Amino acid sequence: MTKDTGENKVSKKNISRRTCLKYLLGLGLGCLLPWGAVHQAEAAKLTEREALAQFGINLHYPSLAFGDMSLRQQTSAIVVHHLGFPDGHDASAAEVHNFHRNQGWAGIGYHYLIHRDGAVEKCRPVEMEGAHCYQNNGYTVGICVGGNFEIDQPSKAQMEVLAKMLSAMCLLYDIKPGSRTIRGHQEYNKTKCPGKNLQAKLPQLRIRTSMLLDQARSK
Ligand SMILES: [Zn+2]
């Protein structure tokens, strides 16, 4: 977590105009399609729910009210975070949501939050731009793991569920797991997030993700 997450406050209306203009100027096709249609056509055929179901993940849906958000135009990488509270508190999505809203953001900046027992809370809608990784929110999904992994270790359940969540996102957005597509927050911004103990596990998480994806695709 970091205070400087680059929350995007551009309204959907402005994005819509800009997107239409891009197509008018760049492609000369005019604004014939609803603005999200091109993106959706290019995105994976699976829904979020279907992709998660492939790996046996049942989301918890906290009741969170968000301010204005923008649809993400592309998705090519996944950023791993920790909550990073000094006492290692495994806060609920609602707690983090209130904390982020009080900073003037649209709401919780992550897309998912994985708790110590392996339960996953859905946070910001996955198709929306997050507010979790300054200057890199426009093409990334943000997954946060509850705890402070500068001082603690992620639980076994968190490691297993994180690999499954990474696999589901790779399936949903057609991402190849690797060191450029699955990264810790500290690889983008000046922060200790997701903590040295979780950052050190990213190589094995990428391997586990590849294995899970191969298994899912060969079903
Ligand atoms: Zn972070």
Walk me through this protein's architecture:
By secondary structure, the protein is an alpha/beta fold. The chain has two domains: 9-42, no CATH class; 45-217, Lysozyme-like, CATH 3.40.80. It is 34% helix and 11% strand. The protein has seven helices and six strands. The protein has helices at 12-27, 37-42, 48-53, 93-101, 156-173, 196-199, 202-217; strands spanning 59-60, 77-82, 112-114, 120-122, 140-145, 182-184. The chain has a six-stranded mixed β-sheet with strand order 1-4-3-5-2-6, covered by helices on one side. Strand 3 and strand 4 (120-122) form a beta hairpin. Helix 5 (156-173) crosses helix 7 (202-217). The structure holds zinc ion (ZN). Residues 1-2, 81, 185, 191, 193 line the site of zinc ion (ZN).
What does the secondary structure layout of this molecule look like, with pairings?
Layout: H1 12-27, H2 37-42, H3 48-53, E1 59-60, E2 77-82, H4 93-101, E3 112-114, E4 120-122, E5 140-145, H5 156-173, E6 182-184, H6 196-199, H7 202-217
Parallel strand pairs: 1-4, 2-5, 2-6, 3-5
Antiparallel strand pairs: 3-4
Helix pairs in contact: 5-7
Bound molecules: zinc ion.
Bound molecules: zinc ion
Instruction: Using the coordinates above, name the CATH class of the largest domain.
Output: Alpha Beta
CA-based gyration radius: 17 Å
Quaternary structure classification: single chain
Whole-number count of domains: 2
Shape: globular
State the low-pLDDT regions, or none. Answer: 8-44
